[in-house]
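User: Could you write out the 3D structure of this protein bound to zinc ion? I've included everything you need below.
Assistant: Certainly. Input first, then the structure.
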Amino acid sequence: MGEIPKKQMAMVIQKTGGPVEYKEIDVPTPGANEVLINIKYSGVCHTDLHAVNGDWPLPTKLPLVGGHEGAGVVVAKGDLVQDIEIGEHAGVKWINGSCLACDFCQQSDEPLCPKATLSGYTVDGTFQQYCVANAAHVARLHKDIPLDAVAPVLCAGITVYKGLKESGARPGQTVAIVGAGGGLGSLAQQYAKAMGLRTIAIDAGDEKKKMCLEQLGSYAFIDFTKSENVAKDVQAATEDGLGPHAVILVATAEKPFQQAAEYVRPRGTVVFIGLPAGAYVRAPVFESVVKMITIRASYVGNRKDTSEALDFYRRGVIKCPFKTVGLSELQSVYDLMHKGEIAGRYVVDTSK
Ligand SMILES: [Zn+2]
Ligand SMILES: [Zn+2]
């Protein structure tokens, strides 16, 4: 293990709205219960763009180093850290740390901890070469997992896996994935399949249709731009015509959130995961009652969800296509996101 440098390169925003600047900053020092990770690769998530733009109802720290899908090597650790060693591979995810003592932490709901710190949002994240994180919360990465390819799994993969668990759907049951052709949606279909669920993909366009049916394992595709009645078509795609047992909403528009209660199966569960800006949900009370449906929301995974989601990935049943660019080119990735031209995930290489 080489010397830890005093300075490093990072992408930093000084004020909300950006710009994001490639500059030299100090290497942070881990606290007693933290590790210092030499980040090799970091995924770029839409949340990072929200952090730059400040359009979520939660302020970021400033100046800010964004990023929350970082994979690398542990290079230093605090005195209290005992269960992870220098040289091991680890991932930094959205939940950077939590108190581990509050009512929520005690029940493994650490994403709900009032003292949770958020990587690349309330604490500096992974768009730097050296990042600190609470040792209890870093993802343990087996050495046979490639650090570039796993980066997007650390946010998107864990998030959809958690949502599928929250849906309560059991092996053999059917789940509709709304926004199936996007990054979260394509992972959701693969996790669902690996969990023994059958999936109906809902999205738009022939390219996405082909991808969902031929590569991602869905048995049906509903194109909401071509369907005259999405609810009817989704129900008709289930064997008995009564609708899917669960609906996973990873869409970025509000309308599908309004529709899901109409076509979910009686006793079924609608799970909100996507975060369309400023969106609200209305559901018909009468139908909701007489169908006894559940509408719930799912945030990010806890530590156990993280290790389970990574274990699926390690077994090769989850593929997440990505492109790699240098850390210094992060702005070009944000520009593509702004234009809605992102296909697949981007991963930044912190060495350039
Ligand atoms: Zn993310
Ligand atoms: Zn807590």
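The longest strand covers residues 34-44.
User: Perfect, thank you.
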